[in-house]
Design brief:
By secondary structure, this protein is an alpha/beta fold. It contains 12 helices and 12 strands. Helix 3 runs parallel beside helix 4. The protein is globular. The two termini are about 25 Å apart. The structure holds S-adenosylmethionine (SAM). The site of S-adenosylmethionine has 20 residues, from strand 3, strand 5 and helix 12.
Length: about 350
Amino acid sequence: MVKTVIPLNELRNPLAIPPARATPLEGALADTRGRTLRDLRISVTDRCNFRCVYCMPREVFDADYAYLPHDEVLTFEEIVRIAKAFREVGGIEKVRLTGGEPLLRRDIERLVALLRAALPGVDLTLTTNGSALKAKAQALKAAGLDRITVSLDSLDDATFRAMNDVDFPVAKVLDAIDAAAAAGLAPVKVNMVVKRGVNDHQVVDIARHFRGSGHVVRYIEYMDVGSTNGWRMDDVIPSAEIVRRIHERFPLEPVGSLYAGEVAKRWRYVDGAGEVGVISSVTHAFCGTCTRARISTDGQVYTCLFAQRGYDLKTLVRSGVADHVLSEAIRGIWQQRSDRYSEIRTAETARSRKVEMSFIGG
Ligand code: SAM
């Protein structure tokens, strides 16, 4: 495979932070398309112990791959300061820790505790591949984590091992889901990325397995994130087809959104065995209601998962600016936001160079 990943030194060449415009005190902060800022995703590491073929293919993320050096990674205290500044300007309701694999970050539960204390009332959650979750679930809950999402692309062990490409057994992830539920992190959300011809035969099996468990499976259309996964439209199973396949076996009916901007479209089993969600970033873009900002591992703000460049908050934070300067920077970044990549995606744009998901946080 050709190494088309964007070199880190280019990523570190940030865009100039735009000046903030005055907003009425009582009015919510809105971007150029009227979208408010509600969700913050924080990538706490660009490293992962899996080499999922659609995310961090081992041909690119090999022994020579240049991960961020330690001193470029935001400290916990810097992360908390940035998160507080976001909340200050944007009415953040939800914070998700991700990566890379967030549970690889040493003492991650300490960060959870710091965020919990700094952001009371915020829904604090984390996305993990589950490999280290069994050992960490109780500590994460005790530190104040509200919920957890576990990625699980197949119940079939051979398919699962082939997709994570490090021969990790599916039984350990299933154990970890049980451990998370026992620790009080239920209901667990289970993310399945569906790739045609690779794991789409598992759609109904996964539905069957988690029906009645209280956990919620969310089927994600395979996306053209980053530049390394060789994405092709033919590999995408549209969520309408996923719903149809499940519905044929276990009848479904639609459920209304819980809140404005909810990304997953929800369906419930007619027999009362729970619900599933589908995330249709490719076939039904939801840019129009996207309220998410992302902080990369090295402290840049990205206003779209498919962005090519971020805004460098780390330099600002490390230059010793006052809190209100940081808040003004965030306000300016959000006010000029105009991204709507998924609405304008074409085969051509899919080939463009975008930041890797492991760096920006999935
Ligand atoms: N390591 C953690 C994990 O595995 O959940 C967190 C980071 S991972 C990048 C976050 C989520 O992004 C996972 O559920 C993963 O399956 C999903 N993901 C990665 N690449 C994707 C792609 N090309 N299309 C759709 N989802 C993707």
